[in-house]
């Protein structure tokens, strides 16, 4: 008898959860990739910070900037995309933001890792930092590839088309999907 009375109020509500993974913006695979990007870029940054002295400091500083930026902004992007917070920010093109940010950080991580690998003091710590820089860059590349395979290019025309070739407006798309 008590189960009949309380059953409708005790069922879990998936919308009340803090995290929204998987969601329209972030599936489970890309969530895991983003977490790996955050962790690897943090390790690369910490290892770079532990370097005591540098023979040529510019590559080290560039690597520091890229690894720190990658860590902080990827963490921010992960938090925004994996929670309801992205709805509070007035940005309507999250897939483009995600794609272009990830592609730019990928290029910067490769460039900074290569320059740091070519011009450093050859200490063990610097070598390990470079290795983690390349690991980070590879995970960012995988993220871009998975994004392109699952979502497609964000550069294509953002308007969907009906089967007869006429463009579908955002309002018509909402009506066709039941308002969701």
Automatic annotation (TrEMBL):
Query: Where in the cell?
Result: Membrane
Q: Does the keyword Protease apply?
A: no
Name any GO cellular component annotation: membrane
User: For the MARVEL domain, which residue ranges apply?
Assistant: 25-152
Instruction: List all Polar residues biased stretches.
Output: 158-167
What is the protein's membrane topology class? Multi-pass membrane protein
- Please list which residues make up the signal peptide: none
Q: Where is it chiefly localized? A: membrane
Q: What is this protein called?
A: CKLF-like MARVEL transmembrane domain containing 6
Q: What is the originating organism of this protein? A: Nothobranchius furzeri
Q: Which gene encodes it?
A: CMTM6
